[in-house]
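I trust your eye. Have a critical look at both lines of this record:
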Amino acid sequence: MKKEFWLERWERAEIGFHQEEVNPYLLKYWGELHEAKGGEVFVPLCGKSLDMLWLRQQGHDVLGVELSPIAVRDFFAESNLTLTHTSEGHFDRCEADGIRILCGDFFELSRDHLSRVSAVFDRASLVALPPEMRERYARHLAEILPSGTQTLLVTFDYPQQEMPGPPFAVSVEEVRALYSAYADIRLLAQEDILDREPRFKVRGVTRMQENIFLLTIN
């Protein structure tokens, strides 16, 4: 999947993946993490997620990475935050009030960028990637995160042949295959969500489940 796909989605405002409220699994399971005091929370492929505001309200500094300048601009504007721009390597660095978003390619991130990170919230990143990119994503993330970093990961699982992604289906077995070499994996919960997600029913999906994981980087 090329970068242009996501840039065009934001240009056309085709952002059905954006949630207009804080993710309920973040609210319910964030307490399972034991993030280091003073560490940042990393939100990959963050878009203009309200989850970043909630995390900041809990006292965390927040670091996001996002490809689309439109998403970054809209996040700060809709949050009534006056951002400052600086250059940081391959990224346009935008920040305000303890929230820093690096606008650019996730795969350009280095350990230096994430040196202060102690926790990750991944609701819309892994599931946004096609199968051929997910292994590279998991490996790169594990390589640049500090040891001991914990991730709250949410994935969809459904019959992939019934609907083209994104969001793509990522099973419990695939999460274990992707991350077992890099992290301890704990399955926190599984939720059947098809009845409350009619947009997927309309697209022909007959089964849909969300899986919530806690990963701890070795």
About this structure: The first strand starts at residue 40 and ends at 44.
